[in-house]
Description:
The chain is α+β, with helices and mostly antiparallel strands. It is about 25% helix and about 25% strand. The strands form four sheets. Strands 1, 2, 9, 10, 11, 12, 18 and 19 form an eight-stranded mixed β-sheet that branches.
Amino acid sequence: MTDRRVDVVVIGAGVIGSAIALELARDGHRVVVVDKAGGVGHGSTSASSAIVRFNYSTWAGVALAWESLHAWRDWDAHLGGRGGAILATFRRTGMLVVPADAARFAHTTALFDRAGVPWERWDGDDISRRAPALDPGVFGPPRPVDSDEFFAPAHGELDGLWTPDAGYVDDPQLAAANLAAAAEAHGAGFLLRRTVTALARDGSRWRVATPEGDLEADVVVNAAGPWSGRVNALAGIEDDFGVSTRPMRQEVHHVAAPREYAGDAAVALADLDLGTYLRPAGDGHLLVGGIEPECDPLEWVDDPDTVDPRPTAAGFRAQVTRAARRMPELRVPSRPSGVVGVYDVAEDWTPIYDRTREPGYFVAIGTSGNQFKNAPLVGRLMAALIAAVRAGHDHDHDPVRLRLPRTGHTIDLGTFSRLRSAQGDAPRSVMG
């Protein structure tokens, strides 16, 4: 039985799916978003640290992040004044990435200069003066916190790459809800607590089956986060990718910040030397997470629905102890506090925004960990891609190019192709 015929079904009501729904609805499409959760942004979006930073290894990554900052800074305008009574807020803290790896520094700053991203290089004295809570010593490479090497004295002094316009969004789940509200104002519908059980082509349309009834649509967009592999299997396209995606369990920890970490000194930090990151969390606290150092095993999962939502003592101790090595006045509590999420991770930490071999079936997957910041523009990206492909453009052989509305930069969407290879110098950490 079919209970609704629409133009587009978006599977997944996280920040990415909600952004896609908004832009497609703005373009005049009849859109329905389906999600198994009970609320918008209740999946991996709710566990995001929501850091807005610009350090990527590709032009498309830097340009998209810089463009997205403009949307976050003018969030109400991006939503067209339709995001609801309470809006998520961007907090500008600046971000320091250490060390300023000489092998990548020139490449990264060249991309920054091309995009117009302001940056500075900080030496150890700059770090001590401008972020006095941080120890500028070199302790790496990252090691397990129970190893003797971890506690060895510093063997040099760091320098870092500072971007003053970086920061974070204070409530990632609220940001997704704002996008959903704006999408609904343009006519999109959200069907929550609905699990997609089957996908099939029925002539020129897709039939999306759920226990509560079926939907029919010309286009399906898989934005299901850690469940995206399961959805691709329903569509029969698991072998249509040059890069793979897998669900990964991640912990983000919440601790009281030291007194020196306040005001302008409360900077966001990506610490490649120790394998951790941190940012302010408000009310005198900070968030601490990991950047997948080689010494730590990655916690891949087979079934996102079976993941224990409680942070572990071992994970908490490892990440917060690393943060305390950089921030000597930070105390490591005996009881873990934080959130657990399941991320949807591509093997090269670059998302897949693409068509597939099945007509009308598109994917926005592999986004967890480093794409929250880009969500406002991912919606426009996917809307442009869908329009071009449905108009007959051969995106696989002649990738669509997108002009970004606020900065005027142009990006090649082939960067996010499902057919790319994750070999050679492809990114190997969440930094992308």
